[in-house]
Design brief:
Blueprint: E1 4-8, E2 20-30, H1 32-35, H2 41-52, E3 55-60, H3 64-74, E4 82-87, H4 91-96, E5 100-101, E6 121-133, H5 142-147, E7 152-155, H6 161-174, H7 178-185, E8 189-193, H8 196-204, E9 210-214, H9 217-224, E10 230-232, E11 239-249, H10 255-265, H11 268-271, E12 281-282, E13 303-304, H12 308-327
Parallel strand pairs: 2-3, 2-4, 7-8, 7-9, 11-13
Antiparallel strand pairs: 1-2, 4-11, 5-11, 6-9, 6-10, 6-11, 6-12
Helix pairs in contact: 6-12, 7-12
């Protein structure tokens, strides 16, 4: 049977009438960095399994956009019970698959936007930004970046939610002028990676001056490594906001357990883990508040954001503009 782990009890060998214990398994598809040793996955798994009497199976699948593509490909026969790691820019596309079920979870969210959605539950959020080393004279907007010799690493919007977020960042800041901005930026791009982890690794190896990441990324270096050498460039146009979400699949054979996991993700136990493992702002501020060091982070003066429906309508045109500019 799907998702059932069977343990056979024995005493001095197999005995008639041995007890069979069924442990339910919950499979969660998420992105690679979430399940990494330094990501939130190990702590989330340990904390949830303490209360659920289950086996939490976290499966890493590249980045957020690739995650949705995998679920769409598998359809109703997906092994996943929960999908964690798509964002508001992909929510409409995810909803259109018809694969997601209402989560029936409520929480008092601390988000910059009002939240009402029956199928998708927010668990963290942040602002996209270009991260650089302290002392680097970072450009203050996209025009200045395009006119400079600054080398950047970005992610592919077809497989990565940060990569897609960058398209919306440029589009929301410049509208019809976005193609010209991308044409100007094409010489600055060292490479385009499939996901965030690869891009950030290249930056840390010195392959670029800046990497597309988050305003919260320097907190990792400051808190985990006691290293204050990283900063996020503040752009005059404002910064595009991302809200990451999770949802349960209609085809799950563990619907109650799936809802229990989603409720756990907005509980204090999980929300207190995320700031210093996923390095994002929690969707519900933990009782103890944000970790020391978060108060030092770059704070955008202007938040840029498209609703799920707006983002879906703009996705293909924005992607076409990007592909055209980079192919010249």
């Amino acid at each position: 049977m799907k998702k059932i782990a069977i343990a056979l009890g024995s005493l001095g060998g197999a005995l008639p009438g041995a007890v069979i214990a069924d442990t339910p398994e919950l499979t969660v598809y998420t992105y690679d960095s979430f399940v990494s040793d330094w990501g939130p996955g190990p702590k989330i798994e340990a904390a949830f399994e303490e209360s659920c009497g289950c086996d939490l199976n976290l499966v890493g699948i590249e980045d957020g956009a690739a995650l949705l593509a995998r679920v769409r490909l598998e359809g109703a026969h997906s092994e996943a019970d929960v999908v964690l790691g798509i964002d508001t820019n992909l929510m409409a596309a995810a909803a259109e698959t018809g694969l997601f079920a209402p989560h029936e979870v409520s929480a008092e969210y601390d988000l910059p936007i009002a939240w009402e959605d029956a199928n998708f539950l927010p668990y963290d959020w942040g602002y996209f930004a270009f991260v650089h080393n302290e002392g680097f004279a970072a450009p203050g907007d996209f025009r200045a970046l395009a006119e400079s010799d600054t080398k950047i690493v970005i992610q592919d919007p077809r497989s990565s939610t940060p990569g897609l977020g960058l398209l919306y960042w440029v589009k929301s800041a410049y509208g019809d002028e976005a193609p010209a901005i991308w044409q100007g930026l094409s010489d600055n791009i060292v490479t385009v990676t499939k996901g965030w982890s690869e891009a950030y690794g290249l930056f840390l190896e010195g392959e670029a001056d800046m990497v597309l990441s988050y305003t919260t990324s320097p907190a990792y270096h400051l808190i985990a490594e006691e290293d204050a050498s990283k900063a996020a460039a503040l752009f005059d146009e404002g910064h595009y906001m991302q809200v990451e979400v999770a949802g349960m699949l209609k085809g799950s054979d563990q619907p109650d357990l799936a809802r229990q996991f989603l409720a756990f993700m907005v509980s204090d136990a999980a929300q207190s883990i995320l700031p210093t493992t996923n390095w994002m702002y929690p969707a519900v501020t933990p009782e103890a508040g944000l970790p020391k060091g978060f108060e030092t982070l770059t704070q955008p003066e202007k938040a840029l954001f498209y609703t799920a429906e707006e983002a879906e309508a703009l996705r293909k045109p924005a992607l076409d503009e990007w592909l055209t500019a980079l192919s010249r």
